[in-house]
Amino acid sequence: MRKFRKTAAVVAAAALALSLCACGGKTDKATTEQTSGGSATVTDATASTIEDDGDWTTTEQEVVEDDRFTTVEGADAIGVTFDDGTDGFTSYINNGNFTMSAENGELVCDITKSGPLEHSCQIYYDGFTMAKGCVYTMSFDVRSDIERVIQWRVQINGGDYHAYASDFITVGPETQTITKEFTMEENSDPAPRFVVNMGTQEGQTEVTEAHKIYFDNISLFVTDGSNAEKIVGAPQPIQVKVNQIGYKPDDTKTVIVTSKDDEKFKIVDAETEETMFVGAYGELSYDKSAESNVRHGDFTAFNTPGTYKIISSPSGASYEFSIGDDLYDDVYKDVVLMLYKQRCGTEVTKDIAGDFAHEACHMQEATVYGDTSGTKIDVSGGWHDAGDYGRYVVSGAKTVQDLFLAYEDYGQTADDLGIPESGNKTPDLLDEAKYELDWMLKIQDAASGGVYHKVTALVFPETVLAVDETDDMVLAPISYAATADFAAVMAKASVLYAEYDADFAKSCLDAATNAYAFLEANPDMKGYENPEDLVTGAYDDTHLADETLWASAEMYIATKDAKYLTATKTALDSNYLTGFGWADIGNYALYDLAKTEGVDADVAKTAKEKLLADADEILSKAESEGFFTGMGVTYPWGSNMTITNKGMELLAAANLTGDAKYTEYAQKMRDYIFGVNPTGYCYVTGYGSLTPNATHHRPSQVLKETMPGMLVGGANNNLNDPYANAVLYGIAPGRAYVDNEQCYSCNEVTIYWNSPLIYLLTGLN
């Protein structure tokens, strides 16, 4: 095997030194009183007073060069010899079949079914960069047992997956070296992908004969880097953080600055720049999630309606924000309407959805996975779960429950949010939830009572509109988690819909009873796993005690049957997981048991104590952190859901105790979502000065327009996709976010990320 030139074109350096030296301890919150004449009295531990001395010198934020990416002329961006295994290559199958292995210093693709698509059998390689203006030479050695056509591509890794360079080649038993020189004409890409498609190429007939294809010495060589554009990583965030939507007059209001040097701030009118308020920051502290110094400034006492920005000395200006009573009306409607726009199996109308209107999609019947009889089932309806078009029971159940709690806890009976059912005298949150429940009822197996886990195609769709995903639909096998979640939300639905639609309420209770009977008959059922050739979202969950608790609790609340009370007591003594997530869901049971009248007193007491213990732990952690999230340094995929779920739990604790401290910190978590976070992003699309506009959401990608009202996943220091791994390597956990459609682990959206935000906004508004 020939050796490649020494020097990698991409070197992952250590974390960027974006923060200043750490000093100081836990931040003290300052309380300010508005005074006349543009000055303010600041009351803190030292009872100091400051005046507006007119010295508001600001300095431009230092731009720290991101030196993790280099384009080195005479080096290999890709240089793989397969002397040490498959060397970072990955296989992908879509209606094809093959295995990939390294043998005798070559990559061997043993193809038993080439498949009908170009990419039915594919190998790919990530982990390199490409710079605009750079000249590259792609080369590799290849041979095949039989003569046939394959395609290589260097392409964007997302969206339409278009190629920067590609070629169709005919391969055969003789080894040939493929070489092509090209210039990168498009914008620099920190995370492209090299692929070889071994399915049926355009204009060819499908290869039915089993065969092997051999690859070696794969190189993407930097031939001429003299005109190479610098490859840019994650942008440097603004230092002065505010809620970019704003604050109600009586809200606790906090500005956070990521600097050790700022000691004072002022609020100025956004239009006239007149000074309205002057405040001092509290003590300096260090926030590990941002890997930065932070100071907190309190301006709760300033409550004059208007639009403002904050000038911090010397760090500069914040984004604009407002103070007023009705600031959240528009964003609330859009966050709810996101669910309507995600509806499947019905026309989504232009008067409501605008450019995101579509005809009824996914109307084809589905086959039960593994059913050889070919039986088809109507599975139309429900919500598209996320940036793709799958429909999943466990995530749908969480979404429904969040809507139920928003309606139940805060009397959210609004019937004018703008969905087609508005004005029908049923609260819109219940109408929207019913659209999902109607779909869930379709995918319960009538014979057993079990509920199928999901409805998707075998693979994720291409980047197409919903009406253009026409692949065959399959019902994934029945799962314990889906059945338990179904039983829980159907039982609760039977209570909530009784006054609006008694027949529907009864059908929900009947379905819940049948589902619960399935759980009783299958107590040792294992957690769901995808079958081998079903590669859409698994939503797998191996810890099922919390699902058992939720199902038994809601059945008990709905029926008051002693059987379910006994089951609930048993479940409360088990090793269940707490939380308001789709996987760790025990708190849904605890909260409903704690707050519902007529529940067994001992059960209610146990549930309340457990929920409040969890809430107190969240509160304690949030109080000690610079951005009040309680996340520490762990920001998982969907961290914004985790944070809004924590906000839900704090509001639940406030509802059970009346303690305003819980509400105050729930509001801080709302403020985090809308801009008071290490990145400075307002994480809800279409709102704020800095908002995501390149979401991993197929309709938005195809239309090249971002749907408003979607909560993106947010910071994710697990770096779960190639783009994140390239751009965010070494970035602080709370800053590990990038607004790019290729970055699905940070910038996708889901219905069950929106739903806890709906609850949070309902409770705080």
Which features would summarize this protein structure in a list?
6-stranded antiparallel β-sheet; disordered N terminus; 765 residues; 19% strand; globular
Provide structural commentary.
- With 765 residues, the protein is an alpha+beta fold.
- It is built from 16 helices and 29 strands.
- The strands form six sheets. Strands 4, 6, 7, 9, 12 and 14 form a six-stranded antiparallel sheet that branches.
- β10 (148-155) and β11 (163-171) form a beta hairpin.
- α5 packs antiparallel against α6 (502-521) and α7 runs antiparallel to α8 (562-572).
- It starts with 30 loop residues before the first strand and ends with a helix.
Mean pLDDT: 91
Uncertain segments of ≥5 residues (pLDDT<50)? 1-49
What level of helicity do the residues show? 25-40%
Query: Which percent band covers the strand fraction?
Result: 15-25%
Number of helices: 16
SS class: alpha+beta
The strand count comes to 29
Shape: globular
Main sheet specs: 6 strands, antiparallel
Radius of gyration using CA atoms only: 28 Å
Distance between the termini: 67 Å
- The quaternary organization reads as single chain
